[in-house]
Amino acid sequence: MNPDLQTFTGGPLQTNAYLFPGEDGWICVDAPQGIAAFLRERELRVETLLLTHGHFDHVWDAAELVSEFGAVAYAHPADFPLLYHPIRPRNYGISGEYAPLRQVTPLPLSPHGSIRWGCSGREFVLFHIPGHCPGSVAYYEPRASRTFGGDILFAGGVGRWDLPGGSRKELIEGIRRYLLPLPAETMVYPGHGRPTTIGAERATNPFLQGEAE
């Protein structure tokens, strides 16, 4: 197991979360169902929760991580309505309920913008790439040559744009503007499925052919 990156996959949609060391604990990217128990069993303390977007499968345990572990949660403000007022998963044929997340800090990221940003001893470049969800954010960590983007970009695919607030145009344009220009060796850790690289997606992703110049 990579000591600098651990992966947890949980919940009915097999959603990925990623853990790596911060200054005084662990940084967690997304909070699918079951990750609180995973952390508890391994006696891992999360100090920072980075949310890629507000869809239920990515934030199911978010309130629990904040209340039990004292994690500071960050998200794009465009997705605060989803965090404050959770949808009912049964609307999508999934049983169970999850708690609203009201203790959340807004990322200082303008619409469709990017910014250099640091937390817990780590330096990131944040990209706001809506289209799958209004507040979708990719966290690019240049020193580690990796990006965590939730459901923005997958191995051989991109996020759905047919959900409320979705837009194919915004999604593809955002990927083209911010992700495809990253170094080819940059690892992409998606919200579902296996990791990939920017180079592989630039060359073979059927949704992006002709999008990179």
Rg from alpha-carbon coordinates:
16 Å
State mean pLDDT (0 to 100 scale). 94
From the 3D coordinates, which CATH architecture would you assign? 4-Layer Sandwich
Text of the CATH class: Alpha Beta
Helix content: 10-25%
Strand tally: 14
What number of domains? 1
Total helical elements: 6
Query: Which stretches are low in confidence, meaning pLDDT under 50 for 5 or more residues running?
Result: none
Q: Kindly report the spatial arrangement of strands forming the biggest sheet.
A: 1-2-3-4-5-6
Strand content: 25-35%
Shape: globular
What is the ordering of alpha helices and beta strands?
A: EEEHEHHEHEEEEEEEHEEH
Name the CATH superfamily assignment: Ribonuclease Z/Hydroxyacylglutathione hydrolase-like
What is the end-to-end distance? Answer: 37 Å
Described by strand count, sense and barrel closure, the largest sheet is: 6 strands, mixed
SS class: alpha/beta
CATH topology: Metallo-beta-lactamase, Chain A
Topology:
Blueprint: E1 6-10, E2 15-21, E3 26-29, H1 35-42, E4 46-50, H2 56-59, H3 62-69, E5 72-75, H4 80-84, E6 105-106, E7 114-119, E8 122-128, E9 137-141, E10 146-150, E11 153-154, E12 157-158, H5 168-179, E13 187-190, E14 196-197, H6 198-204
Parallel strand pairs: 3-4, 4-5, 5-6, 10-13
Antiparallel strand pairs: 1-2, 2-3, 7-8, 8-9, 9-10, 11-12, 13-14
